[in-house]
Amino acid sequence: MDLTSFILVAFLAGSAWLYVLMVVVGLGLIIFVHELGHFLVAKACGVKCEKFYLGFDIFGLRIARFRWGETEYGIGILPLGGYVKMLGQEDNPARLRQELERARSAGLAPDAVISEEGVTVAAAQAALYDPRSYLAKSVPQRMAIISAGVIMNLIFAFIVAVIAFAIGVDEFPCTVGQVAPGEGAWRAGIQPGDRIIAINGRQTMRFQDIQQTIPLTRRGAEVALTVERLGRSAADQLEKSVFDVRIVPDRIRVIPTIGVSNAFTTELADPPCFPGSPAAALGDQLKPGWKIVRVNDRPIADYAELHRQWALTWGQSVEITLESPEEPHTQGNEAKKVTLRLDPSSVRDLGLVLEYGRIVAVQADSPAAQAGIQPGDELVAVECPADIVWDGDLLELPYVLQKTLRERQGANVPVVLSIRRSAQEEPAFAEDDRALKDSPHTAPPGENHSVTVPARLASSFAELYTPDSPWEIPQLGIAVEILPRVRAVRPKSPAAEADIQPGDVIVAAKTISPRANVQNADAPAVESELEVRFDVQRGNNKATWATFFHELQKFPLGTQVELVLRRAKGSEKSHGDASDPEAAPQELTVRLEPHVRNDWYFPDRQLLFQPMTFHMRAGGFFQAIEMGASETWTSVTLIYRILNRLTRGDVSPRALVGPIGLVQTAYRVASQGTGRFLLFLTLLSANLAVVNFLPIPVLDGGHMVFLLYEAIRGKPPSEAVYVGLSYLGLAIILGIMLWVFGLDLGLIAR
Predict the structure, then answer these.
(1) Which of 108, 405, 450, 566 fits as disulfide partner to 103, beta carbons 3.0 to 4.6 Å?
(2) More confident of the two residues 93 and 511
(3) 212: Cβ–Cβ under 8 A, 6 or more apart, which residues?
(4) Basic and acidic residues composition bias: which ranges (predicted)?
């Protein structure tokens, strides 16, 4: 979405125009206070300020202007900053003196132009000899003027942080809501509801502590997490445990992560469920704000317990008790409650059985880890006991195992994994699974090896599927890659009716919404809601079938799927000549509608819940000052850490955000409340202060370097040095701007 469309959508979204106004005013204030710093100190030093502009009036184009006293104030047409124009603002006075001497020798008139910038003889004389000129001031005064913008940004950051904590900020606690299969937190055994109370020994309180620490970890370095878990004892009593885990963040995306999301409550969101789900069939009986307090006969205290019950009742209908958020009208009465029957989430199946590849991750202390399975092992075959009905589809295996384990009530269910181990191949994730490599269960490299893994009843499952996620089998504790290559087709399935054949490779897939499922040739073009491309080359996956299949379950009933298939030459139904060695693979496009399975279910009930937050507010004025100072310091040091990691290669430059992304982020944060938006302005103002004071010519930091040189040498740098460094600085800034604009506009892949 481009910036114009983004703003238009924002204005049309009810009261969202207020958030747009907050963004415009907030970003404008940051620029204003920066230029105000230059302006006020320049005035205090007796410098004549000719212009004060927000934005740049390129080619004389401006939105508004007025004159007050000797200064022209205005808003430029290009909203990418601002400037203060001071009399004699020239960083290289030596060059100006040389030009003026040449003009005098040539006998030029006062209005004669003597430089490429259009400076006249009279202007040069004023710049050098007028007592109110910037160049007429001492080096310390000019340093004060140059540094005033940065100082004002730091003061502004501190003030808005104090205001934010004075009025209160709704923050996300440092509690895990969802876990991504195969990633660091999943491998370490972290579960929904776990609270991370320390990172590398430093106490944590907000979820942003994870977001600001994990991405800045040195490449290959471990992160030490102290985790607090509230569980149930053998006597079914709540008990708290604290343990430590060490994780190497995954670098499978632009930003290093451990694969967790923020936590949720048990209060229903608005809307309360996905369309077309069994929960949606309950209609108005599911009300936003109502809280699930019981599943069957089990009290639900938090989202972690609710998630556990979804896992234990996987594939079963349950009774959920909802409690109204309204207070009882009379003292002693209980809040209004209602009990509803909630059916399990049937899988929407295409009838495809796909091939599987490597085991990309193994969960710590899982049955697979104890059996010696290692990340990177090639999964050749999977065998279940003969009395278990299963057709070999790895996507269906988690439900089959969970159902069998529940029916057999703890009896052993052995699963035989045939693996091939390669000494050269590295695992896709699992940078920190070094302990598994020292396992006594070692298969000879390159040979098939059978390992029996006793399945366990799953009390948790991964919900956070990202574009590159593998498929989780929680009963074994492994995450496996699902290859987009058809292994088999179920008879009488949508795939069979579409004539999909074993060996076909799925190149791309997209969903077609029910409203777009039309056969009329005159109908408008079909719009896709989810479109992904697959790459069977390992290590270069743009998306995984596991994620597409997982997300497909959330779409409304009647959603169709369009697949682009590549069929190898020589296929019996290929239109090419099988005997022709030059025959190229054929590319086919088919459309099919998933059918609802009544014998295969997802653990997730497709309900939507409100995020867990806590109100962070200072207890008084002095505490607000203390918290504001701490937040400002954290913001300043965060920028330095990011720059440090960028130069070391620990953070990818593709993670940078330009002006368009900045505006979109500001809008999203503004919609989360005034307090959070003020803290965002604190971070942004500190960012501007740090970046603007970098020693790059054309920035304030570059000007300061030239002034330091002049203070030490007693004269400014030569024209050749000044011009060369200025052009270099300008090239750096333009290069960075082109890069971030390319990222924002999607011209450069992240």
Answers:
(1) 108
(2) 511
(3) 634, 638
(4) 431-440, 569-578
DSSP 3-state assignment of 100?
A: helix
Structure tokens at 561: 């799927």
Q: Which residues contact 287 (CB under 8 A, 6 or more apart)?
A: 268, 272, 322, 324
Q: Are 616 and 171 in contact (CB under 8 A)?
A: yes
Q: Please name which of 460, 181, 125 lies closest in space to residue 305, comparing C-alpha atoms.
A: 460
In whole angstroms, what is the distance from residue 280 CA to residue 340 CA?
A: 12
Quote the crossing angle between the two packed helices 659-670 and 17-44, to the nearest 10°.
120
Rg for the chain (alpha carbons), in Å? 32
pLDDT score of 735: 92
b/e map of 487-507 (b: 16 or more CB within 10 Å)? ebbeeebbbbebebbeebbbb
What is the bridge-based pairing of β-strands 414-420 and 378-383? antiparallel
For strands 614-616 and 169-171, give the pairing.
antiparallel
Give the residue among 21, 33, 144, 41 at the shortest CA–CA distance from 81: 33
Question: Residue 217 has which token pair?
Answer: 């970890």
Taking all residues of the chain, what is their mean pLDDT, rounded to a whole number?
Answer: 84
Helix (H, G, I), strand (E, B) or coil at 306: helix
Q: Tell me the C-alpha distance between 324 and 336, whole Å.
A: 5
Give me the sign of the Cα torsion angle 582, 583, 585, 589. positive
CATH of domain 266-346+605-611: 2.30.42
Assess whether the previous peptide bond of 271 is cis (omega < 30° from 0): yes
What pLDDT score does 359 carry? Answer: 96
For residues 549-557, average pLDDT = 91
Q: In terms of C-beta density within 10 A (0-12 exposed, 13-18 middle, 19 or more buried), how is residue 80 classed? A: exposed
pLDDT at position 41, please? 94
Q: What are phi and psi of 709, to 5 degrees?
A: -60, -45
Contacts of 518 (CB under 8 A, 6+ apart): 526
Mean predicted confidence (pLDDT) in 103-108: 57
Question: 680-710 burial string, b = 16+ CB within 10 Å, else e?
Answer: bbbbbbbbbbbbbbeebbbbbbbbbbbbebb
Residues in the chain: 750
pTM here is 0.82
